[in-house]
Automatic annotation (TrEMBL):
Protein name (Swiss-Prot/TrEMBL): Proline dehydrogenase
Lineage: Eukaryota, Viridiplantae, Streptophyta, Embryophyta, Tracheophyta
Proline dehydrogenase domain ranges (all copies): 159-485
Record keyword Signal present: no
Function field: Converts proline to delta-1-pyrroline-5-carboxylate.
Catalytic activity: L-proline + a quinone = (S)-1-pyrroline-5-carboxylate + a quinol + H(+)
Amino acid sequence: MAIRALSQKKLLKSLSLRYFSPKPLNTAASASPSASSSISINLTEKPESILQNQLAALSANTNANTNNSSYINLHDAEKLFSSVSTTKLLRATANLHLASMEPIVDLGMWVMNSKLMDMEVFRDIVLAFVKHTFYEHFCAGENALATENTVRSLNSGGAGLRAMLVYAVEYASDNQSCDRNLEAFLDTVEIAKSLPPSSVSFIIVKLSAICPMKLLERVSDLLRWQYKDSSFNLPWKLDTLPIFSDISPTYHTLKRPEPLTLEEEHDLQLGHQRLLKICQKCLDANVPLTIDAEHTSVQPAIDYLTYSSAIMYNKYDNIVMYGTIQAYLKDAKERLLLASKAADNIGIPMGFKLVRGAYMSSERKLASSLGFESPIHNSIQETHACYNECASFMIDKIANGPGALVLATHNVESGKIAVAKAHDLGIGRVSQKLEFAQLYGMSEPLSFGLRNAGFQVSKYMPFGPVEIVIPYLLRRAEENRGLLSASSLDRQLMRKELKRRLKAAVI
């Protein structure tokens, strides 16, 4: 395989974004890119100060848009929930109230992880309770038919929301599990094909489900060491975009790692082939694919596989592959700028999903155990600022050139800032390249408010058998406990609308 690495120093010398001229869009009948294909990358040498200048401009531009938040109406509960039945509104209010009580969440997590679940009768009772409460609220369904019905309901009847479909399987440990998960992800694309056009916005995949976690850790170690020592040779490495910046955490790899064994190289190739099969399936179905971000211990390998696949599949103005940037990481802005810049320089349209991040507790614990500073921003305000600045940069970029952006946020202020930015640039210039997203079952007022403001809005919709989805639900419960307990806007507006309907019914 040909080896070409994009040099960060060369990227920092690039003077300006060089957008390519879009060509006619390839259809789903396009020939499949070859997994061994390689492209020549030539970057022009320019002043090194461009990254610092862009970072400063991001902050200034974001601050200029902070106060312009009049485009989203989150006060008219009747209009926001006009497409939601009273029965569903009642159930949603009850489930969110339960989920907002931290003692309930703690008890539920203890029960699900306890040996009590080994008792068949007890397990059946617990799973039945979970299925008819949290599962039905946060998940799309157990099988294809149930999922299709949920998506249709979400997209029709005035709701007008789209679905980001994810088969909610967690980590895989061997190739047999990876192959099984691959079939489930390919079936997910088939579900999308069976639904009305545009009702499914994205297929979501966790790479740790189709490539063994231990192998992702090994590959990440090797990529980090090569970043530290450019003479360190990785013979299996394909063309990719920058996956590190000068402030990226590298403490996971404190000594020179051993090269991949022949078996590990073979397994890495298998993992990449699984990803490419999903890419091709998504290309044929005309549904883009987004790769979720994970722990920093494996994120370098995830970015490497994501970007190398994007180079193969993202052609002209047809973005098949999206990567994910976690804004709670201190290096998020620089990595986004570097990857975006490199993609422009080689004529690859790149899509990014921007999230805040989901592994705060474990990341801080790992860094502390190794005696290093946390890779997470020191305050939530810094995370918010980073998110908004990254969003501002990308909205500017897609308004004036190639690329696409998914803003996955439950933060109302971030939504208002992004909407104001889009209006300042001309909403028509970004509306088809910009998607807002929230978790299914959460932040409904924000989702409906953004939809009413004229934007494309998706709900992240996990599905699968209850027992398979349980690990996903436990992880989400841990990640979002603060959000669910601190944010009462959803429940306030739901109660307001329920009171209005009750009053109208009585009168």
